[in-house]
Amino acid sequence: MNEKIFKDRTKKLAIAIIRMAEGLPRSVAATAIARQIVRSGTSIGANYRAACRAKSTADMISKLKGVEEESDETAYWLEIITEMEYLPHEKIALLAKETNEIVAMTVSSVKSLRARSRVRNS
Fold it and tell me: Which residue segments constitute the domains of the chain, with CATH numbers given?
């Protein structure tokens, strides 16, 4: 996947997460979860943009690990929202699918970069 498409996907996910969080119930727990998922969901794209400006392969891997961590955390909060039944499953399913795809693509990119780095250093 090219850089522009991935940037667009992560930005669209951030916007969708923000909109979804606005629809959560107004309770102490749901508000805490909303803050957490907005933070992690918007950090995915911000961290990816930082990775695109990496100064070395090691720097890029490090920054992509941040993308992976924030994506995985976002997936976690989506699972909590679903299990708490704060929103209908249908409203969460596409967000969860996109988040999990971003996790998978990021993990794959990190593995590829590490393998390429090992070959260069051999």
Answer: 3-121 (1.20.1440.60)
